[in-house]
Amino acid sequence: MLQLQKYLKGDKIIWGVIIILSLMSMLAVYSSTGTLAFKYQGGNTTYYVIRHVTFMILGLAVVYLTHLFDYKFFSRITQILFYISIPLLLLTLVLGTSLNSATRWLTLPGIGLSFQTSDLAKISLIMYVSRMLSLKQDTIKDFKGSFLPIIIPVGITCILILPANFSTALMLFLSCIVLMFIGRVSMKHLGLLGLSGILVFVLFLLIAPQVGMGGRIETWKNRFGSFVGAEEKENYQADQSKIAIVTGGILGKGPGNSTQRNFLPHPYSDFIYAIIIEEYGLIGGIIVLFLYLYLLFRAAIIVRRCDRSFPAFLAIGLTFALVFQALINMAVAVNIFPVTGQTLPLVSMGGSSMFFTGFALGVILSISKSFETKKAAVVAEENEENN
């Protein structure tokens, strides 16, 4: 254990949360992909879990490699990542792969690898906003000099994500507002930003049917209608999720004993939290919720220890975005929110999301590692003076 700690730098509790959620992910994905295996892999129930564990190991490798860098390195590459993400979002809208009337995936030519460009855009935008907030602190209340250079990239990114993935665009928009609030942006400007966001969304609803995007509008209407009970017969996903939660009880049915995995659409991604509660009970669900909230608490501790604004904004921005997504996923599973299609970070089955989540966690650990480096330098200096 001591040997492992020598290589894993940064906040050890965050490392613990990552490892626990990864282990729970393996169990939950293995249990929830049985029906998928019989449908597409001739009953080979290990196919999807092996594939998932491979991605998970690669994701953990991304966490490890990323946390080795000094956090100042990410300030230098922030603009590059952001300027790469914008054309990729445009390419996705034009050439991307469609799923459920939404064009979210971009396939890289030559290698056939597909990924959601919104995952890259989400992380790069939060990093970009964190950098801009740190640079503009002396003039943060100025509309033209500080607010516009921050909000224009936010608006462009969210507008490009909106046609294919409304929930991601909204979560990213709200995460940036929270980050700007922490960064002391004027409340008047934030209020103006909120009104502008509503106006843009209304304009999109009016224009979308005219440019062939009416299918997405109908999907949103159906999901919201099902959620409020206007179309109870079509509220299938939420009903199956509630059955899984209710039958799980306090202690659950036990690992691998889920029955609702045979009825729930996407039990290995969108509704994996319902499967966790069914198999591990209310206690298991509370533990998962606690792990994400504790991750946010540890980020707050990191922020308090930061003596510079950029790492503080970066740590809280990335952590809030991850935890916010997790809370949305769990809220959908317990029928507090309408279906959004958001996965549970580090737990749901996925490829590209695992890489980008790993990158975000690696950055957070890199920031916390800097405290250890400073402490070691102080101790070394004191030892030299004593000698």
Characterize the overall form.
globular
What's the N-to-C terminus distance? Answer: 32 Å
Q: How many β-strand runs?
A: 3
Radius of gyration: 22 Å
As for the number of domains, it is 2
Helix fraction, binned, reads over 70%
Overall SS class: mainly alpha
Strand content of the residues, in percent? under 5%
Low-confidence stretches: none
Describe the protein's topology:
Layout: H1 2-7, H2 12-32, H3 34-40, H4 47-67, H5 71-95, E1 97-99, E2 102-107, E3 114-116, H6 117-135, H7 143-161, H8 166-182, H9 187-207, H10 214-228, H11 236-248, H12 272-305, H13 309-333, H14 352-386
Antiparallel strand pairs: 1-2, 2-3
Helix pairs in contact: 2-4, 2-12, 4-14, 5-6, 5-7, 6-7, 6-8, 6-13, 7-8, 7-9, 8-9, 8-13, 11-12, 12-13, 13-14
